[in-house]
Amino acid sequence: MDLTMRKDFKTGILLGAAVSFAVAVGISIFSDNVVISRQKQLLRTDAMDTPAAAAHKIAQPAPARYHMVQPNENLMIISKTYYGTSENWKKILQANAHQIQNPEQIRPGMKLVIP
Q1: 113, 96 Cβ separation under 8 angstroms
Q2: In angstroms, rounded to a whole number, what is the distance separating the alpha carbons of residues 115 and 106?
Q3: Looking at residue 63, what is its pLDDT?
Q4: What does the alpha-carbon distance between residue 43 and residue 15 come to, in Å, rounded to a whole number?
Q5: What's the pTM?
Q6: What are phi and psi of 26, to 5 degrees?
Q7: Does any domain span residue 103?
């Protein structure tokens, strides 16, 4: 019985081992990248939940919206336009108290703040 292996058989075994090793390393690197990516995502999420980030969110005022009053409009119609209900007309009145003394007397061309 000949105990020596044929050269092509040895090459096949070596190639098989090399491919298996390469696949294992590739999977390991890929899974490490997935884990690192997930950790970074969690860190970003945690950073957004800090008190400083929450204070920053609170400190940012909402951008002001304005409405130019058109003929035959009143605060109830304007409220329905922006809020979907006429019940919030008092919010508009309060936000514009500096220029509206009587809600019945708004005039076309007035620029109203819509809170």
Answers
A1: yes
A2: 17
A3: 77
A4: 42
A5: 0.48
A6: -60, -45
A7: yes
In a domain, 2, yes or no: no
Q: What is the pLDDT of residue 108?
A: 96
Distance in angstroms (rounded) separating the CA atoms of residues 88 and 71: 20
Residue 71 CA to residue 80 CA, distance in Å, equals: 16
Q: What does pLDDT average to in each consecutive run of 10 residues of the chain (115 residues)?
A: 60 63 56 61 60 62 88 96 95 94 93 95
| 3 state SS of 111 | strand
How buried is residue 75: exposed, middle or buried, by Cβ count under 10 Å (0-12/13-18/19+)?
Answer: buried
**Which domain covers residue 71, as residue numbers?**
65-114
Q: What is the CATH number of the domain that holds 92?
A: 3.10.350.10
Quote the Cα angle for 66-68-71, to 5°: 150
Do 86 and 77 meet the contact criterion of CB atoms below 8 Å apart?
yes
* CA dist., res. 110 & res. 1, Å (int): 107
